[in-house]
Amino acid sequence: MELSRTFAWEGRRIAWDTRGDGPAVVFCHGTPWSSATWAPVADALATEYAVHLWDLPGYGRSSKDPAHDVHAGVHARALAALLDHWGLERPHVVAHDLGGLVALRAHLVEGAAYASLFLADVVAIGPSGSPFFRFVQEHRGVLAGLPAYVHEAVVRAYVGDALHRDLGSETLDALVAPWLGAEGQAAFYRQIEDYDVDLIEADERALPTLDLPVRIVWGTDDGWIPLATGRRLAALVPGAELTEIPGAGHLVQLEAPGEVLTALSAWLARGA
């Protein structure tokens, strides 16, 4: 699914699109990804559901203005505004990586109402932030000036580190592409520099108050956010169900699309 529509919000241009009819399902991607990570699953669901994809401001096809903040608090407000723009009152929300924090914060802080929440290898509780994140934050503004070929090598290595299974060069190229060029390079480091651990800690304290159906899936070989974190998250969320997907890494929806689609389809069928 290509994002052919845009939503103007607080000076930003948010790329989005929708397909299909039926109960609404909204997908949220994480960092350093785009909606492309959810596109195959969304396409498969579009025969029975109205699926909505969007790129976070500062990511993918959305605007990357250096004057704009790109932390999860901003993205949560953007999600709440998008739900209002789409006229969706209680959609099912599906989130990966930082998208988990965005979706949770949109619900807990911005008051967005969901029918259910499906979380895949999400950023939601600590510890958070890789050694690479800390390095970029300690050297703000420096890496944006790297020669383009060095920057591309850095992004390729970073993205590749998230994978447990080989997805092939075409998929890797698609994941790296939004961060190339002068605009993409600056935006790549800016979204790391703007990463706010305090938001994670605040939302973690609020997790026991969640009052909606929550399903969690986790790749057993996630090298970025270990399975132990997923198990701890499931223990913190009242009534949450956890499915562990063997042999999958952090990009579980691309590494094990069949397993994720099966789990998500069964979950939606229960609550649609």
From TrEMBL:
Keywords of this entry: Hydrolase
InterPro entries assigned: AB_hydrolase_1, AB_hydrolase_fold, AB_hydrolase_sf
Domain AB hydrolase-1, residue spans: 23-257
Gene3D superfamilies registered for this protein in UniProt: alpha/beta hydrolase
A GO MF label: hydrolase activity
Protein name in UniProt: Alpha/beta fold hydrolase
Organism name: Nocardioides anomalus
